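Justification of resources, computational component.

The compute hours requested in this renewal are based largely on the per-chain cost of generating structure records like the one below. Each record pairs the submitted sequence with a full structure-token output. That output is archived, and it is also reused by downstream analysis tasks.
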Amino acid sequence: MSDFVFQSFGKGIKKDVGVKGEAKSKSKTASGNRIRALKWFVAVFAFIFAIEAVVYLIIIPSLQKPTIIWSGERNYNVVDLSKAISPMLNKSWAKFDEIEAAEYLLDVSGIEDAQIVKRFPDKVYINIVEREPVAMTFLSEGGKSVPIQIDKNGVLFTIRSAQSRSESESSSGKIDVSLPLITGLPVDVSSGKMQIPSKYRGLLEQIAAIRNLSQNYFAAISEIHIVTKEYGNYELVLYPVRGRARILIGRQITEEALQYMMVALDVVNSLDPNVAEIDLRYGSVACRTRRSTGDSF
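The structure output for this chain reads:
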């Protein structure tokens, strides 16, 4: 009786061990399947990542044309600026040369500077700095007088208005009516750009300083004429908006000189409306009328 019990108990143990071993084997198989699936997933993901990396790092920069993003433009539109760098637009991003593109832009008379930054994989950011006019003049072109602006460095330039979209419109931009008109300026083209000789740069700096004042003195002046003198010197003749007298002021145009001019003009015109010329060059007011060779006050 005792033997039977022992044998039955032993058979139960063997059966239980067999069931556990089979379960463990199935668990190992399932775990192996999950690991293989994970490996396949990682492999597929790595393959897709490799393809995207090749496209992003090689194909797009090497084959795709750059996307140009402009900033800083005020008087130029994007169409005109894109035309200025048109030889660069057919190149891929990788072959887009920032220095060469900047040279094309600086050939545009109204652009003073251009900063170009390439951003991977296909962006090119271009910020332009336009010239700030301080005066204007007129040049003869094709038998017509063309308005030209002048910046503080003496560079003459024309602009195309940002509002102009029609090809039939004038290629020159709208001229700021507050700019003083300068006549008699010689033009130097030896540098490849239209510039005035360096000896007149001080005059432009004086004009720029006066334009920064709160009072618009140049609203009372229709023209600043440069009279060339011997030995490279020059003098200035101002033509006021009101009145027919011209005013000689030497070569310094300052706020004090303009204030003195306005007071002298009012006084002289009240005394004699036929005054043709007022001379303020020597610290006193001298005038010339249309009836006499010269009188002093």
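Residues 183 and 225 are 5 Å apart (CA to CA). Confidence is low (pLDDT under 50) at residues 161-173.
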